[in-house]
Design goal:
Number of domains: 4
Number of strands: 18
CATH topology of the largest domain: Uridine Diphospho-n-acetylenolpyruvylglucosamine Reductase, domain 3
Largest sheet: 7 strands, antiparallel
Strand content: 15-25%
CATH class of the largest domain: Alpha Beta
Strand order of the largest sheet: 15-12-14-13-17-18-16
Number of helices: 15
Distance between the termini: 25 Å
Radius of gyration: 23 Å
Low-confidence stretches: none
Shape: globular
Structural class: alpha+beta
Mean pLDDT: 95
């Protein structure tokens, strides 16, 4: 350990005491996310409890040349929270309180370590609803959600995390505390720096407080699971329902995804086997809305877009049908999947999927491709399962080729290499497929303003 590093650790110990963790178990717990490519190797883990402590940590980092990596629920898929190069992990687990609630603004102020499900349950207690929802809601934290602008299964109706943040307190890479937008709905006073920090993956500073707006609870949720003969028919189903009904979700998955879920113990929705399936959800606020949904369903059958389908008749059946979509990741996990999270504009999705299928199958015909995702917002999850007789190292080497081909197709369709999981380290080499050199240069200039010494999550998103 250098003299500078030793002095920094002494200052951090004086500041945090036993909340500065240096044991190997803590390093392995806090220094990673759900990616497994880089081994965790932080110098220590800091567990601040106040904004003042966060500021002091950043000041010590600037003084001694430490690099800081934020750690929330550690559920990311881009290695954005991995500390692999002797960084100091700043974990927000102890900053996990709901600070304030305003019933007139329908807004709640929380610390960054509040778990998504905790916020959802708080909203429910108040008769309200926090609609940003995804599989990791039980462990992901609000600070991390803000850092990646998390989306999930309700984006078609409710938008991304960005759409629900009305105020932020952030500690910049210089240790300054900024209060951004102050919970206002309307504020026309120049640059809204709040939106720079949302989705910045902790590269500009740390979120230490957030004001989140809530909405009314959805009522009488009903879902349909429909089987379609092809992907283009799925798009026609989406268009038909969106013309007349405000959907709260529209998910899709392939027959291969369905097969894995059924093998995992989820009941089959109907007997007809179909190449593609979609799950759509809406509020059945009146008998008329239910009748309208059935009329659209019947039209889709007449047009040949739907081969079979089922509508939920109870909350229990609603939950059961959602299992078909929500348990896909769990059911394919034993097959060592290569995962990619991408998006294009909705109209381009069928051609995009067709192009990806063709290039992967032509090169590696033994690869099983499993598609699913939030088709209502153009976000697809590409999963390729490792053949049983192929070594893991060989499989991931071939998947590196797949990544390049997929991102070339993303670029062709003016899409995004990361729809909702961020760039981190895993997609950093491919940022140029979604962002121009001029944009990347501007992003680096913005980082220089807020974090001139590059202490905040260096090596993520891009290199400076």
């Amino acid at each position: 350990m250098t003299a500078f590093a030793h002095a920094a650790m002494e200052q951090l110990t004086d500041l945090l005491g036993k909340r500065l963790l240096t044991d190997q178990e803590s390093a392995e717990r806090y220094g990673v996310d759900w990616t497994k490519v880089w081994a965790p190797s932080p110098c220590a883990v800091a567990l601040p409890e106040t904004i003042d402590e966060v500021q002091q940590i950043v000041e010590i980092a600037n003084e001694h040349g430490l690099h800081l990596v934020p750690s929330g629920g550690r559920t990311g898929l881009s290695a954005g929270a991995v500390a692999a190069n002797n960084e100091l992990v700043v974990a927000f687990d102890r900053m996990n309180k709901v600070l304030d609630f305003n019933e007139f603004d329908r807004a709640v102020t929380v610390q960054p370590g509040v778990v998504t499900q905790q916020l959802q349950e708080f909203a429910e207690e108040k008769g309200l609803f926090y609609p940003v929802d995804f599989a990791s809601a039980g462990s992901s934290q609000i600070g991390g959600n803000i850092g990646t602008n998390a989306g999930g299964i309700k984006v078609i109706r409710y938008g991304m995390t960005r759409d629900w943040i009305t105020g932020l307190k952030v500690v910049t890479g210089k240790g300054e505390l900024l209060e951004l937008n102050k919970g206002l709905i309307k504020n026309a006073t120049g640059y809204d720096f709040r939106h720079l920090f949302i989705g910045s993956e902790g590269t500009l500073g740390f979120v230490v407080e957030a004001t989140v707006k809530l909405t009314r609870q959805p009522k009488d949720l009903t879902c349909l699971v429909l089987g379609a003969p092809g992907f283009r028919e799925v798009m026609k189903i989406l268009h038909a329902f969106q013309q007349d009904i405000d959907l709260t979700a529209f998910e899709f998955f392939s027959d291969k995804a369905m097969a894995h879920v059924l093998a995992h113990g989820v009941p089959k929705p109907f007997d007809t086997e179909c190449p593609f399936y979609c799950l759509l959800e809406f509020e059945q606020l009146s008998e008329q809305v239910g009748e309208q949904a059935m009329a659209i369903f019947e039209k889709c059958v007449e047009e040949g877009w739907v081969l079979d389908g089922v509508m939920s008749q109870s909350l229990q059946q609603l939950d059961q049908l959602w299992q078909l979509r929500e348990r896909i990741s769990e059911s394919i996990a034993p097959h060592t999947p290569y995962k990619n999270d991408i998006s294009v504009s909705i109209a381009k999705v069928p051609d995009f999927v067709e192009d990806v299928d063709t290039v992967v199958q032509d090169a590696y015909p033994d690869f099983e491709i499993v598609w699913f995702g939030h088709i209502g917002d153009g976000n697809m999850h590409l999963n390729i399962l490792k053949p049983a007789d192929l070594a893991k190292e060989d499989f991931f080497a071939k998947c590196n080729n797949v990544s390049k081909w997929v991102f070339e197709i993303v670029e062709k369709y003016n899409g995004s290499i990361s729809a909702e999981h961020g760039v981190g380290m895993t997609k950093k080499p491919y940022l140029e497929y979604s962002r121009s050199p001029e944009e990347i240069a501007c992003m680096k200039a913005v980082k220089q303003v807020f974090d001139p010494n590059n202490v905040m999550n260096p090596g993520k998103l891009f290199d400076v």
